[in-house]
Amino acid sequence: MPVKIRLQRHGSKKRPFYFIVVADARSPRDGKFIQKLGTYNPLTMPATIQLDRQRALDWLNKGAQPTDTVRKLLSHKGVLYLKHLLRGVKLGLFDDATAMEKFQKWHSEHEAQMQQRQEAAMRERRVRRNPPYQRTNRRPAGDAGNQG
Question: What CATH architecture is 3-131?
Fold first, then answer.
């Protein structure tokens, strides 16, 4: 049975919200699935991704194939990097503690970068909502001398 990790669309028209699910490749997009791994909301700035990293890693190790979009989401959350590190442990290139140390270092740097992006988006949103006050000239230019 070919198994895929893919997005299942929910939400109303023009307001998408997705579940990240493991499903049989032959089942319909919004149909029957095996297990729900998380959620993805592309409308927030930056996009919100909630994902059970361990279950996703288990399914990848079992041979489940992610779709292109889900592959990007898994890469963003570090699941594919963790799979890569654990393969290095299995091949004997380094031990488990080193792999987890590398992953923790990457994760902390990534979280700091995401925090900066979120703060920049909040600043931009505040500026768009409350533009700086600019005084407008209420008198027409030709009536400046006729105050009489």
Answer: 2-Layer Sandwich (3.30)
